[in-house]
Amino acid sequence: MLSPFHPLQLALGLVVWFTWFALMYGALATACAVAPPPADQGTLTWINVALLINTIIITGLLLYWASICWRAARAGNKRENTSYLFIAKLGASINLVGAVATFSLGGVVLLLPPCL
Q1: Are 65 and 1 in contact (CB under 8 A)?
Q2: How far apart are CA 55 and CA 5, in angstroms?
Q3: How far apart are the C-alpha atoms of 84 and 116, rounded to whole Å?
Q4: What pLDDT digit, counting tens, does each position of 17-54 carry?
Q5: By C-alpha distance, which of 79, 72, 54 is closest to 6?
Q6: 89 and 9 in contact (C-beta within 8 Å)?
Q7: Alpha carbon of 18 to those of 7, 37, 46, 49: distances in Å?
Q8: Model confidence, pTM
């Protein structure tokens, strides 16, 4: 596990979100080209269920990382190097932004059929 004070925390949440975003829409396009579900099935299709499960897992992971960074920042001693505390607080914020973006974009599968 990466330390909450590691500088990579400043980009990790958004890198995970971007990777999820690219893979999700790539998988959606591939699934719709290979085995599209019937149009009259609505939103409850195997494609939407798979994308929703993936969304929940990645959102949970990003929220977990945000929690770890936030707890480390709060537990940090004021005499410690302030750059470490800054990295932990900003890492928590970035992971939280990634989680919100993942959940909001992934929540669309509850509203729309997969292959329009």
Answers
A1: no
A2: 26
A3: 47
A4: 999 999 999 999 999 999 888 878 888 889 999 999 99
A5: 72
A6: no
A7: 18, 26, 23, 20
A8: 0.88
